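Why do we care about 3D structure at all? Because function follows from shape, and shape follows, mostly, from sequence. That is the central idea of this module. The next example makes it concrete: a single protein chain, its amino acid sequence, and then its structure expressed as C-alpha cells.
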Amino acid sequence: MQVEAATPVVESIHVAKATRLPMQAKEAVEVEAGRGIVGDRYHGTRHRHVTVQSRESLDEAATAYGRPVPSGLTRRNLTISHGVVPREPGARIRVGDVLLEAVRVAAPCKLLDDTIGAGAQEALRRRAGTVFRVLEGGSIRVGDTVDLSTETCG
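And the structure:
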C-alpha cells in the first residue's frame, strides 16, 4: 500500500517594512498581483514580489551549519512545511488563492552571517528558496495549502 505525502502548507510568513529591518512574523498577508506582499519592503518592485523556502531545505542547512536555522532570520517571506520549491524560471506554484511564478533562485545574502551567525550564508547556498512574481493576488495565511506543481508559462 502506497502512502501519499501530505500536502505542503505555509508554516510561517515574514515581512520587513524596509531593507535591513528585522522580519516580522504574520499570521496572514494580502498579496497584490504584479506588486507583491502589502507592507513588505519589496512591494511594488518589478519582479521580486515573494520569496519562498522549504523547512526541509532549512533543516538541510542546519545540518551543514551545525545548529538550527530559524525561518524568521533567513529574510524569506514564506516558509512551507516540506517539498522542493521550484527554481526554474517560469515554474508556477499556488499558495492558497495566490498564483506565483518563479523568477530566479534566491541567493543568500551576507546579512545572514550577521543575523544567524558566521557560516549561515554558506550553509544556505542552494537552499535559500526562490524569488517569485505574483500572477494572481489574494490572501495567504499560515496553514494554507501549497501546490508545488511545476507547470510553466507558455
